[in-house]
């Protein structure tokens, strides 16, 4: 598996932990790190600022073995989300996109992405309008809609996404299955709904596949669980596993992430 992870990166700043703690992350960044953790290789393509947070992001991602040759350092600030832990639950505050706000892929970036097995981006990555270009290059594409598959960004990328992911707290129900069917008919080969403790559901245009979770004896933190599921699932696709095996690999990768604080 050689993954190109594109777009959003973010520093999660916990203002009420030990006077302030900052953790690098963001969906595509997390997926790149988890891919390397699983034995694959990954590159991150996207912008960081020339500030201290940018330095933290660059050094942390590089230290995890991710190719950062196309992590672009721009004049300005790195994306930051303010987070507080209140009674064990995360409360998300302000989000500043920083240099990410004006990001787009260059032709050279796209040529570099084409050297990978697959490209993945998420709702905040700013490149959904270029997914058509990626598909026309013959690149296999994946997109994470988070909890908002009806947002404009997700709908723009959807027809050009081979593997479409989103998260839902509805559980497996007829309404969810109809929603997945409608999305699949717009272009994706597969639509995968991540359902938290209820596992996941996949639709390939012919059949629905249901898979539960891989039990975790000591859940420390759920941050990054969805991103790690996606990384595991996509690695399974590249390795030629069947759908149920891909779902198991996604669930097993997520379980590893549950065992420690922070995304990675």
Task: Give an overview of the whole structure.
By secondary structure, this protein is of the alpha/beta class. It has a single domain, classed as UDP-N-acetylmuramoyl-L-alanine:D-glutamate ligase (3-Layer(aba) Sandwich). Helices cover 31% and strands 28% of the residues. It contains 8 helices and 13 strands. The strands form 2 sheets. It has a 9-stranded mixed beta sheet, sandwiched between helices. The chain has a 4-stranded mixed beta sheet with strand order 3-2-6-7. A hairpin with a 6-residue loop joins strand 2 and strand 3. Helix 1 crosses helix 7 and helix 7 packs antiparallel against helix 8. It starts with a strand and ends in a 7-residue tail after the last helix. 47% of the residues are buried.
